[in-house]
Amino acid sequence: MGNNFKKSAIISTLVYPLSLLNQITISYYFGTSPNLDKYWSLFYAFYLLSTPIIAIKEQLANDLIQTSNYDIKLLPEIYSKYFYTTLLLSAFFFFTTSFFGYFYFETADLRKLSFALAAGAALSAASDILFTASIPLGDSTYHSKLRFLGVFFSIICVFSFYEDLKTISLAISTPISCAVLIAYCISKAKKNKLITSKYKFLTDLDLKQYKFSLANLLGISLILFLSRHILSTIEPSQASALQYAASIYGIPESIIITTIYGALWAKWSKQRNSHTHSYRNICHVLRSFCIIMLTITLIITTFSQPIISIFFERGAFDLNSTIKTANALSLYSLNLLPAGLTIICGRFISIYISKKIAYKGWILQNSISIISIIAAYFLKNINLVFISGLLGSISALIFYTKNTIELHKAHKHMHFLKTARFVVVTLCIITITPNIHVLGQTTATKLMIVTGGSILIILTTLLIMTAVRIPIRSQTKLLASTLNS
Prior knowledge:
By secondary structure, this protein is mainly alpha-helical. It is 83% helix and 0% strand.
């Protein structure tokens, strides 16, 4: 566990600056353009089509964990069954989607782009499943390695092939990085003698588990595809603006939300029977989480334009691109706090209260987001797409509160009620935060304004916390002790 954590930490430390460099490289060459919009729409369309293959990995993970616990000798048979099934499904997906793309698209460039994206989606699904199968071998660093290789090859491909291939240079990075990972998985499996010479395929699929996994993946991938496709339909260049905004949004999401969520999930899984202790812990975590995410959200929403200008405004990324992306970032980042709360509360409810309530909340969240995006198409309102995630997360939080409030009252969990009131206050503060358009044109001036404004926002946030009598120091210590214990 410790070795994997160190590996993930090292890779993540390299990934974040490299990922930002990748977005800066893309912005320099492509800016925000209809061609880039088309690329992202097709990228997520192929990802959406590959979800039936990726959904298999949930049953694979369960089968491998059970096999590791009871009979380690059966691992080669289990691994080989999923290995050959994955290769067969990925090959079938690649040939069918490539065939469709060849006859559907009229230009040679779009046909080449669809071919590269089909290869990327097929290899991505295969690498996802094969790396899941490597977990019993002690390797759980898949997502860190995939993201590192993805951004690394993306930078190299754009630098090397942009002049000749344009947007296709972006598409070829995914199949290259996934092919490297697949080769790594196969070599590791052969070293541990997990691949047998007998060709066996998956025939005992748990349909109930598969349907839930597929529904969840389809909801997420459908949101990604619809948001990009509808934005490009309503107003050109907005889809690529959202993609740049999502890259900035992903920094606090990955560093803070994912870290806290992962630590809590591991802790709660070990303390399934300790309800009182866990209820007390989540109260401390939620309060501290609100303080942290409120501050970050206020900084991002208030200073979205100078942030985008400092990072991206060069080359093909002009002032018009900055304005579009800043608007997308200021609205899209409003979802940081509610999305984080939904993830943490949903997992807590699934472990300690009811999986059914948690699943319904996740389905409601995705459904409201999809409905908001579709409504944006008919209303011709791009801002509704940007806040679709916020609307979905708030709907899920309301659903969780409604279905668990009686339980909290019965057990006298008053901290939940105080936390709920505090969340309402923070959401109100976030939604009324104005966007500040920085007048200074030099980078030094913008940096000074962002730094000074950030300090003022942090001080204001601390005063608000004090005014509502939230013990910040004790809450921070409790958060640290909760995650470390």
